[in-house]
Automatic annotation (TrEMBL):
Its main location: other. Keywords: Copper, Membrane, Metal-binding, Transmembrane, Transmembrane helix. The chain crosses the membrane at residues 42-59. This is Putative cytochrome c oxidase, subunit II. InterPro entries: CcO_II-like_C (IPR002429), Copper_CuA (IPR001505), Cupredoxin (IPR008972), NosZ/Cyto_c_oxidase_sub2 (IPR051403). The lineage of its organism: Bacteria, Pseudomonadati, Pseudomonadota, Alphaproteobacteria, Rhodobacterales. Residues 70-169 form the Cytochrome oxidase subunit II copper A binding domain. Gene3D superfamilies: Cupredoxins - blue copper proteins (2.60.40.420).
Amino acid sequence: MQPVVLLISLILMALLSAVFYMASKASEGEAPGPNANSKRTGLIWAMVVLGVIVSVGSLRSWPHALASTGDALEVNVSGGQWWWDIDTTEIPAGTPVNFNVTTEDVTHGMGIYDSELTLLTQVQAIPGYTTKVTYTFAEPGSYQLLCMEFCGVAHHDMVNEFEVVAVEE
């Protein structure tokens, strides 16, 4: 998705640059005619409509595609100062997992890291709400839940682990 957004952004930047170039060239020519304001208004409205279409089209899958998949394994995670609780300790590799995340006290940031401490996915844990994030673990191994938002003096103790196990076929 990111290469598509990058390509769309580059195309729009090129179009905008062309518009500015043409505007600067037009300012050196004859005086504007009686319909110049209506042409400008039409151009501005066309750019607004194009911007809305591109924004909706490019952002449509965010974040809804990442949140909650119907056929996924449901895993509940709750947090508090300064702990994470996860209702399972083993997750099958290759299976989409919906993490339902909540907290009982303050806002936390739940990050899932692999054994090399590479961040795989993250979601905010907000008191009174259940936030969701879906992730599919490709490799078996040990994974950690860490808090990503400073939440108090023992923030660094917010660590929990779980295992992703290979699925036998």
